[in-house]
Amino acid sequence: MTEMTCIEDLRRLARKRVPRMFYDYVDGGSWTESTYRANEADFQQLHFRQRVACDISQRSTATTMVGQAVSMPVAIAPTGLTGMQHADGEILAARAAKNAGIPFTLSTMSVCSIEAVAQATQRHPFWFQLYVTRDRSFVERLIERARDANCSALVVTMDLQVFGQRHKDKKNGLSLPPKPTLRNLVNLATKPRWCLNMLRTSNRQFGNIVGHATGVDSIKSLTQWTQEQFDPRLSWQDVAWIKKRWGGPLIVKGILDPDDARLAVETGADAIIVSNHGGRQLDGAPSSISALPAIVDAVGKQTEIHFDGGVRSGQDVLKAIALGARGTYIGRAMMYGLGAQGERGVSTALEIIRNELDLSMAFCGRTDVRQVDRGILLPRQ
Ligand code: FNR
């Protein structure tokens, strides 16, 4: 098989191997997908200052995120249905992250449960992403379960209290398990590897929810459940309440505006993630990379700024770090690796990004990712 040398290679292979509805769930954004496209495209507007004849023989990409050592400023973003890209997807991605020395974030909407991931990774700490539901006792239980599983940071997602429509998911009739329509059966017949792996696992449902929240056993009822349960009254008081209950590092995800960034800081966020949910929610919102500088200017001295959206290479990571992010997250880049080659594919994605980051930093004449600043970028024309 041809060698996987960039994230685009992994994407192409994932498209071949993952059933259509689950591939489309990943590779798409809301409505016209303009924000989804801008997330990637706007990185191209930034240009590096190449420098030469600096001693670049000793280099390090190691840093910290919320006080925890990371081998590079990249974490795995929380993504729902990861266990449908590949059987046991969350477990495989968590293992790849552990081996790479970076954080793995488990979504509330994962297929493998908090407990299953903890067990499969020998209780190596991972991060847990929380959605706030109307049923606060369910939120409390999730926080307890994350604590019991040795999670070392909690990520509260703020930008999914209502849903951005994704046309493809609607048209594909995204469901779990896939409905046995002729179209789905024909498509599944072309993915024998995926089917075989899926038959071998018992992780085929929403592990954090089924059996923990009543009346949820398929994505149809789950969509209904989320629409009924995700609380549109979510407020900063809720975040303060979660922080108190959790007691550990709290990361607030889904910030695009400096005013919200200030409120997050006032509420005690240990870090915020500048994110538009990978262009899956408010279409027409700015790309993440274009929103980053104003937020760094507003609160960069008071809190740690994390970043996601459109990261497909180590160059993208470096640009976000240059603009003031302490760390970045990858959603789709991880999902493509997973869909293409399981755990090995996620490890490959991380290795590709690490090499690109390291070499690009060297081309800019820098040797330590912690020292990277706006000076490595050309002023914008
Ligand atoms: C997501 N994202 C997400 N975020 C979250 O907080 N909880 C979730 O369950 C999900 N689910 C999810 C599914 C899929 C398929 C994608 C692509 C994304 C958003 C995710 O955490 C992150 O913000 C984006 O993925 C970042 O953009 P890139 O890296 O995918 O371009």
Tell me about the largest β-sheet.
8 strands, parallel
Distance between the termini: 43 Å
Named CATH topology: TIM Barrel
Strand order of the largest sheet: 3-10-9-8-7-6-5-4
C-alpha geometry:
globular
Q: What is the C-alpha radius of gyration, as a whole number of Å?
A: 20 Å
Give the distinct bound molecules. Answer: ligand FNR
- What is the helix/strand order? HHHEEEHEHEHEHHHHHEHEHEHEH
Number of helices: 15
**What is the CATH superfamily label?**
Aldolase class I
The helix fraction, in percent, is 40-55%
| Structural class category | alpha/beta
Indicate the proportion of strand residues. Answer: 5-15%
- Number of beta strands: 10
Write down the overall mean pLDDT. Answer: 95
CATH class: Alpha Beta
Total domains, how many?
A: 1
Structural summary, described in words:
- The chain has one domain: Alpha-Beta Barrel (TIM Barrel), CATH 3.20.20.
- It is 43% helix and 10% strand.
- The protein has 15 helices and ten strands.
- It has an eight-stranded parallel sheet with strand order 3-10-9-8-7-6-5-4. It has a two-stranded antiparallel sheet with strand order 1-2.
- Helix 5 links the parallel strand 4 (105-106) and strand 5 (127-130).
- Helix 12 (258-266) crosses helix 13 (288-299).
- Ligand FNR binds next to helix 2 and helix 15.
